[in-house]
Structures are given as structure tokens and as C-alpha cells.
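Lab manual, section 2.4: Encoding a predicted structure.

Procedure: take the sequence of the chain (254 residues), apply the prediction step described in section 2.3, and record the output as C-alpha cells. A sample record is shown.
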Amino acid sequence: MIKTRYKYNTNLAKGTGLVNENLMLIEFYKETDTKQSFLERCIGENILDKSTEHRTKDIVNLVFFDRFWKTENVISLLKKMRDNGLSLDALKTLFLIYTAKANLVFYDFLIYLYQSHQNTKITTVVSNRFLLHAISEEKAPSWSNAIIHRVSSYLISCAKELNVLTPDGYLNKKIPDQLVITYLLHELHFHGKSDMEIVHDNLWKLLGMTMQEIIMEMEKISFRGSFIFQYSGEILKIGWKHQNMEEFIENECR
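Recorded output:
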């Protein structure tokens, strides 16, 4: 019998936003680190103060590595941006993107909220409904009520910690920092997306941005000289100046 591979899992339970912990780990990171040496240094120097060795391993392996060092290592990029003055709010936006990519249940939940709950108070009733529908569509296993309740709570907590929701539970819709948008544009470009594919990418839905909004922001950003932007309403052409993300950060994050 072939085991069903579900789209959603409960990995978010290992840590929701964990903003402070991720900040400490990013600061602690050295470019010479391997995953093993980094983990050993974290345990040896007790970087996550008061955490047990088991908890440190869980946070590093199942949260930090999963979000920032799974398919590619973006830790040094985030560290350089932070060192060059990227605000905490802006960094949280990048944490949001990488957390959603690593946890597809959170990814789809964010899109669900922006599509149909713009003016609704988001409670566990909303997240429960989302999860029950996901189970009916076989995106998740037939979780027990207890697990549904836990995952539902994690979704809400993570959204609040990463500034998607206000403390009282409403969508906190705002245009992200332009440097963050520029970073994401370049990341999509270096991942091989065409200029038109970039503006249609689902990533922008995680931020509640429409195609028209991202086009407007790209035009504003182009005035700073980060890239050359041409858009006719049907044809989009971007003249990229940088060859990789390291060059982008060196030139744009000063």
C-alpha cells in the first residue's frame, strides 16, 4: 500500500515565529559554518540561553535550518542586511516569506486570509475552518480534533508574531519596505523567473499585494537606480544590474 504524501504537516509546532531566537542564531552564524559545526557551536556555547540541548537541536534543525538553510543557505544574506541597518519589521517580512515556504500550511493560510478575510477578525474559528477544508481535500491527514486545535493556534500565533495580524486579530495590510521588495525581486530573478513570471509569483500574495501594487512599487524602486524598469501594460522588461544576491546586497544595502 502506497503511503499518501500530504502537502501539510505539523512542523510549525516546533516553533512559530521565533523571532528573537532566529535573530540570535543569525547573529551567531559564521560563513565558515557547516550545519553540523553550527549546531555544535550553538549547543556548546548555549546560544539559546536556558534552552535544553534537545530544545536547541529542535529549534536549529527543525526551524532555523528548515527555513533558512534547506534548499539554499540565505543566512549570510539576512545577516549582511541586518548588519547594514535593515529594520526589525523589514526583517520580519523576510522571516515571514521563508517560514511560509518551509511550512505550506502557513503559506496557503496566508493566501486564504488575504483572499477572503480582509475585514474579518481572525480567530481559531477561521483557522479551524481552513484546516477542516484542507483535510477534506486531502492536503492534510485526518488529524484529530486535538491536533487541529494545536495547528490552528500555531497558525494564528505565527501570523501575529510575524506582523501579518494585529494583536487583536485583524489583517495588518501594509506595503513592505522597499528594500525587502527589491531583495525579493532579485531573489526571484536569480531563481530563474522571467520578468513577467516575477510579478505573477504567488510570493506577493503572502504579503497581500496585488499585481498592480507590485508594479507600482517596482516603478518607484527603479527611480533609485536599482534596476531599469519598462512596462507598457502588456510587456514588462527589467534591466538587471547585479549578477547575484551577494552583489545586490553589497551595492543596495549600504
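Check your result against the sample. The chain has a mean pLDDT of 93.
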